[in-house]
Structure formats: C-alpha cells, structure tokens
Here is the input.
Amino acid sequence: MNRYCVIMCGGVGSRFWPFSRTDRPKQFLDFFGTGKSLLQLTVDRISPLVPPENIILVTNHLYEPLIREQLPTIKPENILLEPARRNTAPCICWAAHHIAALDPEAVIVTLPSDHLVLKEKAFEEAIEKGFRFVEQGERLLTLGITPTNPNTGYGYIQQGAPTDDYDEILKVKSFTEKPNLEMAKVFLASKEFFWNSGIFLWSAKSILSAFERYAPDIAHLFDAPADTYSTPKEKEFIDKTFPNAPGISIDYAIMEKANNVYVETVDLGWSDLGTWLALYQASPHNADGNVTQNCKVIASGCRDSIFATSSDKIIVAEGLKDYIVADSENALLIYPLSEEQKIRHIVTEIKSRFGESFT
Amino acid sequence: MNRYCVIMCGGVGSRFWPFSRTDRPKQFLDFFGTGKSLLQLTVDRISPLVPPENIILVTNHLYEPLIREQLPTIKPENILLEPARRNTAPCICWAAHHIAALDPEAVIVTLPSDHLVLKEKAFEEAIEKGFRFVEQGERLLTLGITPTNPNTGYGYIQQGAPTDDYDEILKVKSFTEKPNLEMAKVFLASKEFFWNSGIFLWSAKSILSAFERYAPDIAHLFDAPADTYSTPKEKEFIDKTFPNAPGISIDYAIMEKANNVYVETVDLGWSDLGTWLALYQASPHNADGNVTQNCKVIASGCRDSIFATSSDKIIVAEGLKDYIVADSENALLIYPLSEEQKIRHIVTEIKSRFGESFT
Here is the structure.
C-alpha cells in the first residue's frame, strides 16, 4: 500500500479569534460540539483510504503535545515538527522527501486540518479517484469546489481542456488568488472557475521534480544526503535547514507555474472555515438568519448574526444585525461580520497591548 | 451605647442579571473590583458609628452561608433569617422588635446593603446628625438625595416646613414612588423634591408605634409574648409568623402615611445601583462615553455603553451605541441600555426555559 496522507496542522488561525488561540489554534478545537476537533475529524475522514502508519502530520513544534493528546494512536515518528512557520511550500517539500525515503513509489494526498467537509462519501470517492489519476503519471492534482457565491476569500482555479477517462478532472488554465468582488462575480458567472480547496494529490516523485523545476531554491535547501530523511538524522538536518526556507505557499511556488496541473471538480459540502463569515455561511440558520454555536440564545431584533461560545452559556441580545458574537474563555468579540477581515490585526494589537494570555 | 444598625440584605437584584444571580445577588458581589462586596462596604461604612455587636443583618435564609463567609466577625445571633421574601416593612418590624427586646431605648439606622456611597465622611456626618435628631423625640427620618436628573426609577420626597436647630432636616410633605418622566422633570425643576435613599433612622419605640398606628395588621402579626424576641424562642415564632406577613415596602406601609416623617437632605455620592443604567451613570466615562468594569476593552465606534465582566477578560467590540455588555460566568447580556427595564422579565423567561443554573 503506497498511498500516503500528509495533514498540515501548523496554522495559527488568528482570523478565528477568540476561539482560535495561539496555544490552541482552530484545528485543535471541537468547533461544532461533536466531541472531536477539526483535526480529529480530518484523520477520521482519510482513514478509510490510507493506513494509519501512512498518515503523516506536519505541524509547528509548539503543537506536538496537542497532537499527541488528540491523536494518541499516531506514532511519534509520523509527526514532523517544523522549527519555524514557513507557509505550505517548505512543509510539503519536506513531507515529500520524508515519504519518498520510506517509499519511492508513494502517492500522497495533502490535506488541510481545519476545513469542514460535510459529504464524507463524496470525499472518499474523490480522493480515491484522485489517487488513481496521479498514479498514472507525473501529474499535480488539486480538488476544485464549484463556487456558490462570489467569495473573495478563496483562490480561484480556471478549468482548461478535459482529460481522457475522467469526466471530473480537467487541465488547469489559470490560478487567481483572492480576486476582488467584481472579478469574483465574473468568475462565478462564467462557470469556468472553481474554488481552490487546498487538497492536493501527486506522487512523491512528481512533486519533488516540480520543486526542482519551479522552486529550485526550496528544492536545493531540502537536498540532503541519502540516509537523512526518515532516519534519526532527519531532525538535526531539518532544524538547521528549515528556518532558511522562504515562507511561501504551494500555490504560489508550484501550482501557478507548473504545466502539469489538473483540477478534480468536486461537491464535498466544503468550507475552509477560514473566517467567522465562512463558519456563518456553513452553518444552519434560523428564521432570522441567525446561527447558534454551542450556546443558548434569546435574541430579539437580531438578524443575520452568529452567536458562538466555547462553553455552555446563555446569550441574551437585542438589536444586533450582521454581527459576530463569539465568547471563549477570557475574551469576547462583538463585531460586524462585514468587518471581520480586521480581526487578525486586532489580535496583533491585543498581543502587544495586553500580552499573549488573551491571544 | 444604644445606637443600632439594621442592614437589609435579602434582595434578589434580578435587574442586574447576569452579574446578580439568584444564589449570589448583587449585595454579595465585588462590584467595583475593590476586593470587597457591596455588603462588606456597607458594614465598613457604618462601623465608625455603631459598635459591631449592634449591627443586625436581615436576610433571606438562603443567604446565611454567604453572610457568614463575607462577614465572619458578625455573631450568628446578629443575623436574622427571613423564612420568606416579604419586602421591607415586615423585615423592619421584626428587626425593631428584636432590638427593642435587647434595648428598649435603642435608636436604629436602617441601611440597604447594595447601594453605592462615594462620600464616606458625608455619610458619617449625616448618620450622626440623624441619630441625634431621632434621639430627641418620636420622629421617623429618611435621608433624601438632591436629584441630578429626572430619574424615573427612584421614589421622590417633597420637602415641607423646616425644623428648628437642623438646617438640613425638613418635614416631609409628600412621597411619590417612581413618577413618570414628565412629573420627574417638574419635580427636578421645583427644587422641592429629593430622591428617597432607603436609609432610615428612628427609635425602636417610634417605628413600632408607627406600625401600630399605620400598619396594624403587620404590628399584630409580630405581637409576641414578652420573652420571644432575642431569645431562643424567636426563630420558631418568626418561622411560623413571618410568611403570613404581606409583602409591602416600608414606604408604602408607614412613610407615606405617618405625620411625623422628616427628610435629611444629603450629598453622599449616592446611587442605588438598582440597574445597569444606574451603574453606568455612577461610573467614570471615557471620551466616548463608555464605562468599563473589570475588563479590558478595545472598542471602535462604540459610544455611551457599559462593558462589564466578572472576571479579567478582554472585550473587542465595534459599532455598539447605548449598550450594556455584561459577561458573568455562564451568561452574556448584550442589550440596549434604554431597554434595561426588560431584563428582569428576561430572567424570568430564562429560568422557565433553561433552568435556574443560568439565573
């Protein structure tokens, strides 16, 4: 069985403050009160397709205790600890080397750890099909979500020519990261564009050769002597090398440049849960358009708002329209949904004015 | 030393939800983060004037443990436990009997336990003067506060003829409980009216004879054999009798009817802290008119609002005008200050829908 999974779980998630905290980012939270964190749900979701010993977690070294606590059956050697935050490209390059050393014929699905996927069965079928597609050649595959609104928070993938044998897999024509609203509306109307889910499939060989070709600086950094990866020497090498890597995304480093990129169009009931607005949109609304997470709410004259608490709590509110009300431990956010892009900057301000205990 | 103090501390304070809770009403809370509850501050305030063994607390039996915890030096025999809630008249009648049995010549100051008094020195002087006044004859004295705005939540006392020897003490012409706004404005403009502070002075004899004359039903109920009050028989008698008393206020039962009622006009830096609006008005405001209690606040575009938390917490808010934001344990209130009179009804709704743990 040479199918592997890499789960990226080192993000900070500051746009989701105050739920997401520096010492417990959103992937480690039980967001929907199901009894499982988003990370645990991600592992559950991929487990029918990849054996447990082939699931690799890449995270910041700070989160090792949280990973061990939440995923006690994952072996320590399957947890790759980044000594610094460097976005997704260096993370993916390292993981590919690590896996290639274990199995040169490996194919890999790379998953974010903090997204919502409601349709598990469709997810399974899509990943299964994706594995088969990338097992057949040097191809980089990304899962594309049919957009339902002109969201300006996502990356957009333009479809190109169809492929043989796979109706839902198409050549990629272009990538556009976070377009403005006008452009997003044009993309939506054209029906040629898909949201970039951040779920990727490729063989270890394909992605490593793409790094050599399109991001030679990163490829060069991770060029190690033959007995380094997946041996006791790996940690020392990474601790020295990794901080020198540039902090760039895999989309920017590889996907936007490579000419062998494909998109598999899928309907997964997906949200990146990147922001309070995304959570609001992904959640069931009551007659007033309000969303309730985890709490009891008595709201009069409140509309199109999300009320969320991290513990069993009652909220009494009146007259709020288009608001986020989010209460978690020592912090309370009462903020217009339309202004949520400011939240990450406020978190920075809080940290400098009041210290890390509030972030 | 035959000066006594009765502190009434059996109230529920539901208008101050979610800070004030059924099992810990507002008099037991450290409202201003000073390290002392409003009740403890009340005891401190009267201590220069009345010896500790002459301070009597009257409360609901439910709050005995809280009183013992907060006031460990008060002797158990000085805590009178009401077996039922019956407003202030029965409470005051019982306390007068209890004290008269200890000292027939006693004079008594009766204090609410949950008010704010900023000017301690003025308070001391006012009570000292009041004691002297009521020691000289059968007089019922109430402290009246010079009104600063047409507040419709207070009782208003109209001044009558001056008295000999005491510039600040006047005969009372009339009482008006909670007037409408039009009337309150007329009262304010006339300069003849004072807010009823709920602080009363009289001799035990005077108030008991007033009960006989103006509230004979209550007087009759508390008519006990000679060796009942302040003896081991008191509790059994009260547990049987007290629940039969009508639930009415001392203002309505006695003060509005008696012809020997006087008002001492005082400036105490007083607020009854009866509502969030009262707390808002009694607290220092920042340049945007916002009040912060106990918490750190990052507020943009917020005006004339009060932000209060019962623990060290940060609140990030935008766009709130004239709001109460009050967070305490398992409850959060986000409510227009102008609608605060609805809070007590909401608390009733919460209790019936979600149970007592939230109230």
